[in-house]
Amino acid sequence: MSTKDKLTGVFSRHAEAYRSRLDEWMAKGQAAGRDTILDYVKPRPGMRILDLACGPGTLTIPMASELNGSGEVVGIDLAQGMLDTARAALAGRSLPVRFLRMDIESLQFPLASFDAATCGHGLHFLPNFGRALAGVRRVLKNRARFAASLPGPDRGGPDAPGALLAAAFDARLGKSEAPPELARTRALVADLDQLSHAALAAGFRIAEAETVAVEVTWDSPVHFVTVQANWWANARRLEGLSEHVRELVLKEAADQLEKSLGGGPFTTTDTANVLRAEV
User: Fold this and answer.
1) Which residues 6+ apart lie within 8 Å of 259 measured at CB?
2) CATH number reported for the structural domain that contains residue 140 in this entry
3) 184-196: average pLDDT
4) What is the pTM for the complete model shown?
5) Does 38 fall in a domain?
6) Number of neighbours of residue 180 by Cβ within 10 angstroms
């Protein structure tokens, strides 16, 4: 099974938890990368917008709400569970939005079909980053805007909550190795110059990349570990464990954080690299 197929399965199985976490962050203004995307694209009536790796509709649905019934947002994803969750979130609402199962690296739309395109944390899962960007450029109209958020630099040290959680998981579950076929893409999106140059090479007229950051609040170490355990990267490591072992791993992780941070609220810094480009 390819890495893409494996990740698609993980995202499908954990779509609801993924949606819950992102909805909370968006509501609190703690999703800096995705908020920056919306600010740049500026959805408005009459636009036709493509949302790549749309997940549970975190960007798709808010953008569709801005169209006031005129225009369309098309969200695509490979994970059927994500698409099902996105459609469920539309229950009882009449919005100009469609969700389709489609691979970003093989877009099935005519030339110059969209006025804008977005992608919230999805491009770093693509083995062929350049081909994907060229495909996005092909389906955009002249002067159309494209914005994407990607994982940003880790600003915490070995005593940061994320590092402590990873160490606790590694102690019980072994080291987690990144898929080698994604190494080139991960290195590219981590470098702001390479990221903007990749967009220019794909045919965009203007491209720039920056790192944005936001403080994220957590009620306690238990809250942090519980939420992070349902995030895709950690959720895939916990799959297949018995409920007893899973709870043991999470308790050990929470205990490690509490020793360093205490049992009360704390904050972490979430960063994202954001690419903004124009045709």
Assistant:
1) none
2) 3.40.50.150
3) 96
4) 0.93
5) yes
6) 8
